[in-house]
């Protein structure tokens, strides 16, 4: 009996402290858990928890049983494991992933269901690999087609990006993995990204460049956000008081943890006071060429600790940072209810293929060149390096070690096996590299033949083919679609333009398949039979390309950005170097709110638009040429007919009918015009969209409810959104240039 009593006493003494440890109680309110944990931490533990301990991890508090945070690059797949202090690979054999399509492809689906599927799928892969934070998605606005990182983002329009990012965030975080929305904000170019200061009006900031971030934080509830490298109003974005304190915290009410881009913190005092919570880096404190294991010299490490110990600063800001980091930990690594996840599953492969197929955009289909009919056993010639080149390796932080990657040539050969004769010729030689941070493709793309020899071979083969599928575009080499550098020109690289024209001269069924994440020139667009924008579509690229080419999938993608004839036709390139890439580390967004189709809509306007905003004079010269392919445009293998729109109160309704003989999907787009605005506004702005699936002959109704938010502009002087009473026009369209119905709408406050 005595022994039993002694055991019970000891057990009670062991358990008593646990009873008071609220931070360990997953059922307790998260804010109570945070305050309890905070009260138990020492000063050094608080400092340790707000900066990295390795390339992709930050420590927890081992003494208290609080785990650290493990991050992974995304947002198109889970990055392979790297060495503790290095970017190079750790040499694991079980860290391959499914490569999902780039986010331009996701945006091109114009389908929020696809965004949710994407988020769930990649979230499961991150969770299986025990990652707490997925460094993505990216929602920076497509300002110039030269931006090497556009392929990671969701296009030129804030409404499209806003609606597509929310389901992605929710899908990922349902797996117990935090999204880290990036790059906040104004990271719209890679050239000079580490030091360029962005100058723009508050209207442009709030109307164009912030909405997608706002939606991700407020509607999606993202648990973290990543600061950008660039400066805004003279402060680095990673510790910018306006972006982080005034907007993120006060205006949006976000409780997310603010994470620096790697090496993005540049000033200790600002890092302390302006809202940065968790500092990561690349060997260094951001100011000097680095040294291995330099984490103690990070701005939020020993420099911060010494300032506190000397009495130079207090601990108020520190405690707030720790709260935000603890909140992130409790939501992720200490979440007992998160799923186990899954890696490289059949379901993820199927999701990648489905998203890729739905995001591909058919831009031209003269004389019904596509889909390719296999009944008569045609001869199909595939031309181009991009038909065989692996695209999952390279491009910067989105580089992956994919479990597999189906090339376009493989996909075509597999689908046409026994039904067509498929031949391949190289056509051109581009980037023959195949390594990034220790991941290798295993391909040998060396070809020493001259341009003349390659061209002659391709042209001769094209003469004998029933179809020519030219798989070209760009790649993820430096100065193409790649981080830390922008494209040097708008044209296709490696002499592709000349080769395409030569092929089109001898074969009227040339199909151009663009593997790329950016717009590019197409001087031959009227010469070829069909143009398919296929993006960087990940592991299932080849299958998805074949699905569309042979009609197994009816293309339904729509462009998430405007494709202009030349670089000079983009508004950011109308004003010289001051607007891009900048002069003396200053870049000025002279086009203001006229980004993308907002600028393209001015084609045919006789006079420049002149106005003043916050003391800045703006002159917008209308484009001299019509857009080559407008925003929101995409063809189908079937046809659709829009009924006449009707308005009932605040609800606009339209019918859509599939008038063809194939099942298909159409995107109904809602644009709004402010007819009597007291300020300069774009001709129209996208305010809603809905993707509908229709069987042949089927009709469906689509409705949109008009809200004041859809009618508002940002009043910079009053610093508020304003919807002016008066007349608006509601447009139902299938692209920014194809309006089917327009109705007047009176708004009364």
Description:
A six-stranded mixed β-sheet has the order 1-2-3-4-6-9. The chain has a six-stranded mixed β-sheet with strand order 10-17-16-15-11-12, sandwiched between helices. The chain folds into five domains: 1-37; 41-73 and 110-331, TIM Barrel (Alpha-Beta Barrel), CATH 3.20.20; 359-549, 3-Layer(aba) Sandwich (Rossmann fold); 567-620, no CATH class; 640-747, Immunoglobulins (Immunoglobulin-like). It has 19 helices and 30 strands. Helices cover 26% and strands 20% of the residues. With 749 residues, the protein is α/β, with parallel strands linked by helices. The N and C termini lie far apart (80 Å).
Quick synopsis:
The chain has 749 residues and is of the alpha/beta class. Helices cover 26% and strands 20% of the residues.
CATH superfamily of the largest domain: Glycoside hydrolase, family 3, N-terminal domain
Top CATH class of the largest domain: Alpha Beta
The general outline is globular
CATH architecture of the largest domain: Alpha-Beta Barrel
What is the distance, rounded to the nearest whole angstrom, between the alpha carbons of the first and last residues?
80 Å
Q: Within the largest sheet, what's the order of strands?
A: 1-2-3-4-6-9
Beta content: 15-25%
Name the average pLDDT. Answer: 95
**Tally of domains:** 5
Which regions are unreliable across 5 or more consecutive residues at pLDDT < 50? 1-17
Kindly identify the CATH topology of the largest domain. TIM Barrel
Biggest β-sheet description: 6 strands, mixed
How many E-type strands?
30
The computed structural class is alpha/beta
